Amino acid sequence: MKKLILLTVLTLAFTANAQDQSLGSKSSEAKSLTLKDAISYALENKADAKKAKLKVENSEYQIQEVRSRALPQISANGGLTYNPIIQTTVIDGAGFGQPGTTIQAAFGQKWNSVAGISLTQNIFDQSVFTGLKAAKSTREFYQINEQLTEEQVIERVANSYYQIYVQRQNLDVLDNMYKNTVKVKNIIQGQYDNGLAKKIDLDRIIVKISNIKTQRQQVLNGVQIQENALKFYMGMPIESAIVIPKAAFEVTPVALTEVPNTANRTEFLLLKKQEELLEYQKKSVIAGYYPTLSLSAGYNYIGQGPKMPLGAKPADGVYWSDFSSIGLNLRVPIFSGFDTRSKIRKADVELRAIKEDLKDTQLGLDLAFSNAKTQIDNSLITIENQKENAKLAQEVLENTRNNYVQGLATLTDLLDAENALTEAQNNYTAAILDYKLAEIQLIKSKGELKTLIK
């Protein structure tokens, strides 16, 4: 039994050492990644950020598309027609000096060929003018949307980044607990070999070591999963190795007296720009009541004859002539079956709805700031309390360990002291995470997320 216990302990120790070396080897090959580096990488490589930039680029083409409606539209046309049977027209013979008679005449030729060019120019079309303004506003909308997308990318990366830190801190706590517990196990092993300790005490400490190993593996898996999530938010290949430096997680109090102006927040500005677009949409519908005026012009060249006109001459019975026209086209809407009125009322409803969204968004932004401020206040108090608590738990553990060696404390007391220290240390790192996440929300509520990359 002693050999079996010793073999179990050695196996656990060897496995822990191998994982430590593996983790250390990975860390030595990995690239140190600060929060600024992670955010900068994400803004350059994450698909969301790239797509937002493409939408801004696409808005330029939308402006050009609307502007084209205000520019001349020029087109060329051509056609070749063969008439196997020419239509006969019945006319009054009086026009040809034969009153009281009817004449049947076939007008036209077997072959007709026409080639020409036409031009159309809008002179007045209110919907075109409104569309140009709306297109420029659309570009501004996508520019604001790009900024909002970048802020969302920054928020996701920062949150994930800090969560990795907590997982790694928990891993360090378990590593320290494992080393201390192994030392206690060695003491108990020596006492047991000399008949000074019970077998149940040795078994309990071995079980404790096994549980620590299991917890460590679970946390190690959690670190890997969280790192993969961070890489995804960054647009980084999953196989890339990264290291989060601990120096980046100092807790520094922030100014909480200044209340941010939510009207300057990107979310609010985006809704305001959307409201502006809906106003233009309404004006575009109202433009349906306005008359439109356009200029049209055309020049054509026609060939007619009994044979195919292409390449033929008058000697072949084919004659060519040109004709042109210039005109003004006026369209005055009178009644559209209440279609325009219905569209205007629909646009009014959409405008009223987005005004409600603006009110709700402003309340939500104010709430986010208030909650972040409260969370930071509470986290600072919790961090200080847990820091002192962890320090005290460490002292209790050391005293209990000494008392156990001297026979003044039970193994249960020692294990309870270890558990208390672990809980205090985990609470401390959890409080830091709560603070950092609240700090991100506070920075976000001020519209200053991009300061994280400066």
TrEMBL record:
User: Molecular function terms in GO for this entry?
Assistant: efflux transmembrane transporter activity; porin activity
Q: Which GO terms describe its cellular component?
A: cell outer membrane; efflux pump complex
List localization entries: Cell outer membrane
The residues the entry assigns to the signal sequence are 1-18
Keywords of the record:
Cell outer membrane, Membrane, Signal, Transmembrane, Transmembrane beta strand, Transport
Q: Which InterPro entries match?
A: OMP_efflux (IPR003423), TolC-like (IPR051906)
User: Main localisation, per the record?
Assistant: membrane
Which protein family is named in the record? Belongs to the outer membrane factor (OMF) (TC 1.B.17) family.
Name of protein: Outer membrane protein TolC
Q: Give the source species.
A: Flavobacterium granuli
